[in-house]
Amino acid sequence: MNGNVLVVHGGGPTAVINSSLYGVIEEAKALGLDKVYAAMGGSQAILKEDFFDLLQVPEDRLKLLLETPATAIGSSRYALEQEDYDAMPAIFQKYNIKYVLLNGGNGTMDTCGKIYAACKSSGVTVAGIPKTIDNDIAITDHTPGYGSAARYIAATTAEVGVDVKSLPIHVCVIEAMGRNAGWITAASALARKKPGDAPHLIYLPERPFNEEEFLEDVKKLYDEKGGVVVVASEGLKGADGQPIVPPIFKAGRATYYGDVSAHLANLVIQKLGIKARSEKPGICGRASIAWQSPVDRDEAVIAGREALKAAVEGQGGVMVGFIRDETEDGSYKVHVERIPIEQVMMYERTVPAEYINERGNDVTEAFTRWCKPLIGPELRDFIDFHEEREKIEKK
């Protein structure tokens, strides 16, 4: 098949964005496309014509994409202007690029829609591949990148929970990424194997943060357990809608928050007189290949392949999405749909009310049922000899 495809990465990386790239490459080979160009450094690379044909790379090296963190071709948050979009059709024609695929989140899908509009009359087909650890793209059940971030926060919370339980003298506050959507924070609930396991409190940005209730809950749990694990979103806001910790810096859509976990730990220390500490995994959670979800990785590959299929079939202006199927036995099953790009451009999907408990300090069982299949294999179990002794003594 004559013609080339260009892949562009936008925004923050994930643990599986390279898996989607691998899916594009494999589908391009199957379709017999001439070249798979990568924009080396995001959307700005289009204007610089900084392209690299990935088909030149040996297959044994390409397979490393499935286990490579971040983005192997680079990304950016470059703000395109209308004149930039207008210049693109000529650049694509120069390199015989007939298909353009943009892999990213809400902002990148907005860019995808604008490039699609600019290329409508040029014979170039443009489609989107969803990507974001925040899981906040509309319509699709979930996004590639989220399952791995969810697995990381669940595993990390479980490990911290064991540590705090073994030396129950303080409160540990873990801060999870997610400005306005608490999907990652909520996934920490999957750390629990049995009642009483960490996390003991979960706070999402979808609910106003109540400092008085937070301190009440922490004090009650501390008196009961001695050690408490809290997971809180970086984007927590008060009843007035303002962040509980003012942003340090804002640039466009990017907001750099102060340490919410440190703020909450300080509250515990100052107002309750209880020892507390904060942990902020930050980008560790989106870069971790050690905790990559195989379900997430496999679906990311599918997303890349399906986006190229849509483009080659002439269906531009769409984003590949995953729709969950109802099954008789409750097992996990999804199918792919092509979602009109205008339905996902800059729309933000937050955690629905039915996934948050009444007090706003935990998630519901409905959320854990929804999320559990996405993180892949069951998290490992740990041994506690206090529990083992209790079991033996009860016999």
Structural key phrases:
elongated, alpha/beta, 395 residues, seven-stranded mixed beta sheet
Terminal Cα separation, in Å? 71 Å
Which residues sit in consecutive blocks of at least 5 with pLDDT less than 50? none
Q: Quick one: overall form?
A: elongated
Structural class: alpha/beta
N-to-C SSE string, H for helix and E for strand: EHEHEHHEHEHEHEHEEEHEHHEEHH
Q: Provide the β-strand percentage band.
A: 15-25%
Taking all residues together, what is the mean pLDDT? 96
Number of helices: 13
Oligomer: single chain
Portion of residues within helices: 25-40%
Structure summary, number of beta strands: 13
Task: Round the Cα radius of gyration to an integer and report it.
Answer: 23 Å
How many strands, which pairing sense, and closed or not: the largest β-sheet? 7 strands, mixed
Side by side, the strands of the main sheet go 3-2-1-4-5-12-13
